[in-house]
């Protein structure tokens, strides 16, 4: 069954530096790191020690408040370092991969005989559970809650982000298995694909397929949930990344934890942006060297897309949920009279106070300049233009800034995740940090209500 | 080069230095020259080119046609009433001598207060006053003494704006508050027929009655439609020319800075109310054609530049329609029913400024109710399944 969702509001940013469709494999002999801060709200209890040997799928740490949720190593090798920050907060667990990979093997029953509670059990024990996130709050799913539905988005609209027809190429079989298994956890399993999606993914069985059409953020799973089956207060839905569905599928096919990642390395400063096959947590240095970012000075490496990612070092590691690494030049430069209307037509703007509307086909080469300074909220209506939900974004943001829990609830805080406000970050003329405000508000809600 | 000089000059204002407190004032000048080198720290890593400064300057650009015509009209009214021969430049220069000092006083007083508050509160100077400071002289009668302009500005910035928390927090439009202050504090100066034309109070031959003033006192109007539309009539400095106000309105709508919903809503509301009164037709003001209502007095200027102030107007799209239509209706109502003050648009907008949060509240509440209803429906489905 196919249901169409048409999104009208939003913005497709056309940027230079998209990944070509060539797929490269990174040699396995690099470092990998799991970063507990990727799992928002999880307080890690370490199981491993520095210098210990771990196998693929062996637990590195578990969640202090939900000890059934385990976080496992994506590769086998030696734990080289456990990096800690202020107050001994665990920042990174670095594992040096062995040449020959050893894996923890789970004994699984035949696929058609796996009972629903067994699916959950195996996902938890094997370390596959963190692939499942929940809304509200945009955190690792709570295994004790039964979700009203599970959502998978195989439609990427964020600027320069990895496209799922490339990512899932050759993984369709594992993807179908993953869907079969997840559908045992909830009968309402929704898969969204692009309106023009012609690959086998659009033929996936055991789920409701939605064809989604429209500009970014149409590919955001939160927007899709809002149009398919919105979250009411007290309800929970789970979301799983499309490639992680395939990872879960492969686990049920082989009994081995597999955290594969097809990664798009993008950005206009790069000479050869392209896709890589690697594992979660891979060291970024060899990959960046491969795309020609090594000799470039004053760059920002972003774990994720340019709107929602987090800045990292060029010696950093691939984040757990990311399939895009973006590289941008830093914008720490002055522009004389750059605030004049119609100045700087090479900087994109959705507002007609810039001439960029004259060049609809131009591919832009943005940098990280803020293009202004933070100011009071003055202009109205600009947030609504890029926010395709039946929610008043500015009113919600104001409620969040005021920590007004009741009002946030009324205005729909449960339906949003920070990534849904990424374009508001981008487009608002007051330069307020909408994503950060929503993240803080979700944390507050989780503490008070969750 | 220039950049280095500025960085050198800014040194004493850096964090931890002696004059750190005054950094906002210095930054205001610096960012006026250069878009700063700030990069994104959290959230989206790339940002749109638009910022508040650009938005506000766009409004100023939109105001300039009306300002230039207003300057010319000041001279034009003076020379035609005194029956002197004049050229375009004569009129323009006469107007400039009247208007430039008012603009200087308005910016001087207003920005001084804004800077003081920015330093006191430790935040950057917001650009909102750049627009307010130009609007205030543009909506004053031309013969108003400068000290009154200064006092009105001070009142507006203190009471209407900073008392509520500064830019983005004010309930009332500051420029209109300045106008209302001047009107209610000095009624003898601000009404009658002696202030609307330059030098009217000094030269006996000049009678500068505005059209609405004449109508209210029962005198019929002898200006043609074209004069009313082009603006060759007495009135506040920049409000008279509907033509040039419309040019500004077109700039605002095209750039998306001003809300077309409010503007269109206002025109619909005023036209409807004017038409209703035409049908009634009990006195001169009621008989005044509904379409003429749209082009005389400050209606066009108010609805294009004042009602669309995003901070004091309704903030939701549906709210903007309601707000705009009500401003239009109230404007004509006040014009027709209030003989003491025939210009209604100022009071109509100020009144609706006060009600804008209420309008928004009900619009947003309907969204909240929709969400609650959805929840109830889904719980009934779940119980039914059980």
Could you explain how this protein is built, in words?
With 450 residues, chain A is of the alpha/beta class. In chain A, 21% of the residues lie in helices and 23% in strands. Chain A has helices at residues 116-126, 164-167, 172-185, 221-228, 242-254, 285-290, 393-401, 405-411, 422-427, 434-448, and strands spanning 2-6, 20-25, 31-34, 44-46, 53-54, 59-63, 70-72, 77-84, 90-97, 132-135, 139-140, 149-154, 189-194, 208-213, 237-241, 260-266, 274-279, 299-303, 310-312, 324-329, 335-336. In chain A, a hairpin with a 6-residue loop joins strand 18 and strand 19 (310-312). Chain A starts with a strand and ends with a helix. With 386 residues, chain B is mainly alpha-helical. Chain B has one domain. Helix content of chain B is 66%, strand content 1%. The longest helix of chain B has 41 residues, at 345-385. In chain B, helix 3 (52-82) runs parallel beside helix 5 (128-138) and helix 4 (88-121) runs parallel beside helix 6 (146-161). Chains A and B meet through strand 21, helix 9 and helix 10 of A and helix 2, strand 1, helix 3 and helix 17 of B. Strand 21 of chain A pairs antiparallel with strand 1 (34-35) of chain B.
List keywords for this structure.
heterodimer, A: alpha/beta, 2 domains, seven-stranded mixed beta sheet, 23% strand, B: mainly alpha
Give a brief description.
Chain A is α/β, with parallel strands linked by helices. Chain A has 10 helices and 21 strands.
How many helix segments of chain B?
17
From the helix content, strand content and strand pairing of chain B, which structural class follows? mainly alpha
Strand content of chain A: 15-25%
How far apart the termini of chain A lie comes to 34 Å
| Residue share in helix of chain A | 10-25%
Strand arrangement, largest sheet of chain A?
1-14-13-12-15-10-11
The proportion of residues forming helix of chain B, as a percent range, comes to 55-70%
* Average pLDDT score of chain A: 90
Instruction: Enumerate the spans of chain A where pLDDT stays under 50 for 5 or more consecutive residues.
Output: none
Number of helices of chain A: 10
| Main pleated sheet of chain B | none
Measured by DSSP, the beta-strand proportion of chain B falls in: under 5%
Number of domains of chain B: 1
Gyration radius of chain A, in Å: 22 Å
**Total count of domains of chain A:** 2
Low-confidence stretches of chain B: none
What kind of sheet is the major sheet of chain A? Answer: 7 strands, mixed
Q: Shape of chain B, please?
A: globular
Oligomer state of the chains in this structure: heterodimer
């Amino acid at each position: 069954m196919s249901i169409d969702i048409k999104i009208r509001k939003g913005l497709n940013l056309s940027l230079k530096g998209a990944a070509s469709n060539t797929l490269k494999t990174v040699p396995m002999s690099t470092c990998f790191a799991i970063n507990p801060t990727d799992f928002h709200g999880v307080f890690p209890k370490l199981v491993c020690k520095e210098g210990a040997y771990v196998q693929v799928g062996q637990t590195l740490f578990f969640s202090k408040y939900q000890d059934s949720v385990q976080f496992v190593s994506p590769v086998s090798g030696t734990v080289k370092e456990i990096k800690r920050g202020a107050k001994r907060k665990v920042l990174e667990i670095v594992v040096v991969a062995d040449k020959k990979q050893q894996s923890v093997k789970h004994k699984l029953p035949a696929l058609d005989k796996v009972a629903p509670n067994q699916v959950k059990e195996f996902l938890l024990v094997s370390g596959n559970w963190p692939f499942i996130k929940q809304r509200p709050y945009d955190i690792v799913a709570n295994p004790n809650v039964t979700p009203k539905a599970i959502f998978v988005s195989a439609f990427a609209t964020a600027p320069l982000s990895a496209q799922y027809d490339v990512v899932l190429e050759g993984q369709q079989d594992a993807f179908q298995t993953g869907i079969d298994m997840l559908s045992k956890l909830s009968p309402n399993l929704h898969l969204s694909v692009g309106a023009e999606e012609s690959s086998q993914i659009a033929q996936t069985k055991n789920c409701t397929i939605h064809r989604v059409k429209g500009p970014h953020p149409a590919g955001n799973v939160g927007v899709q949930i809002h149009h398919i089956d919105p979250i009411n207060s007290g309800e929970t839905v789970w979301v799983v990344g499309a490639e992680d569905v395939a990872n879960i599928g492969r686990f049920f096919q082989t009994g081995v934890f597999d955290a594969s990642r097809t990664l798009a390395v993008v950005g206009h400063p790069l000479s050869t942006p392209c896709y890589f096959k690697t594992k979660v947590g891979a060291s970024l240095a060899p990959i960046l060297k491969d795309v020609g970012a090594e000799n470039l000075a004053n760059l920002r490496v972003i774990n994720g897309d340019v709107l929602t990612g987090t800045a990292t070092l060029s010696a950093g590691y691939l984040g757990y949920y990311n399939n895009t690494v973006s590289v941008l030049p830093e914008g720490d430069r002055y522009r004389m009279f750059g605030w004049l209307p119609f100045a700087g037509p090479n900087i994109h703007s959705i507002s007609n106070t810039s001439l960029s509307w004259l060049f609809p086909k131009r591919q832009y080469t943005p940098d990280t300049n803020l293009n202004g300074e933070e100011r009071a909220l003055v202009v109205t209506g600009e947030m609504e233009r890029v926010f395709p939900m039946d929610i008043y974004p500015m009113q919600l943001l104001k409620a969040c800034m005021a920590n007004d829990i009741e009002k946030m609830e009324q205005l729909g805080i449960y339906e949003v995740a920070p990534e849904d406000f990424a374009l508001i970050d981008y487009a608002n003329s007051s330069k307020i940090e909408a994503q950060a405000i929503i993240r803080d508000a979700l944390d507050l809600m989780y503490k008070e209500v969750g | 080069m220039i950049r280095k000089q500025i960085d050198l000059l800014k040194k004493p204002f850096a964090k931890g230095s002696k004059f750190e407190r005054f950094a906002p004032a210095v930054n205001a000048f610096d960012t006026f020259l250069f878009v700063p080198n700030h990069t994104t720290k959290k959230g989206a890593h790339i940002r749109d080119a638009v910022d508040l400064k650009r938005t506000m300057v766009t409004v100023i650009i939109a105001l300039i046609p009306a300002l230039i015509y207003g300057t010319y009209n000041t001279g034009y009214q003076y020379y035609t009433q005194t029956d002197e021969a004049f050229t375009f430049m004569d009129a323009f220069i006469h107007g400039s001598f009247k208007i430039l000092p008012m603009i200087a006083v308005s910016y001087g007083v207003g920005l001084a207060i804004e800077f003081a508050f920015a330093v006191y509160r430790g935040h950057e100077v917001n650009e909102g006053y750049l627009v307010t400071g130009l609007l205030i002289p543009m909506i004053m009668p031309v013969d108003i003494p400068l000290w009154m302009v200064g006092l009105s500005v001070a009142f507006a910035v203190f009471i209407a704006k900073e008392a509520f928390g500064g830019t983005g927090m004010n309930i009332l439009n500051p420029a209109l508050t300045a106008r209302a202050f001047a009107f209610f504090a000095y009624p003898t100066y601000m009404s009658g027929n002696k202030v609307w034309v330059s030098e009217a109070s000094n030269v006996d031959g000049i009678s500068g009655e505005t059209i609405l003033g004449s109508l209210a006192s029962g005198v019929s109007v002898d200006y043609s439609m074209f004069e009313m539309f082009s603006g060759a009539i007495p009135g506040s400095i920049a409000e008279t020319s509907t033509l040039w106000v419309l040019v500004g309105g077109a700039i605002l709508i095209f750039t998306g800075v001003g809300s077309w919903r409010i503007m269109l809503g206002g025109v619909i509301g005023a036209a409807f109310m004017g038409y209703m009164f035409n049908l009634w037709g009990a006195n001169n003001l009621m008989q005044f054609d509904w379409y003429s209502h749209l082009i005389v007095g400050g209606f066009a200027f108010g609805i294009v530049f004042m009602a669309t102030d995003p901070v004091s107007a309704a903030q939701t799209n549906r709210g903007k329609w309601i707000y705009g239509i009500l401003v239009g209706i109230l404007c004509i109502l006040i014009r027709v029913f209030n003989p003491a003050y025939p210009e209604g648009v100022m009071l109509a907008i100020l009144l609706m400024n006060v009600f804008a949060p209420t309008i928004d509240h009900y619009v947003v509440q309907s969204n909240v109710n929709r969400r609650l209803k959805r929840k109830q429906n889904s719980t009934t489905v779940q119980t039914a399944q059980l």
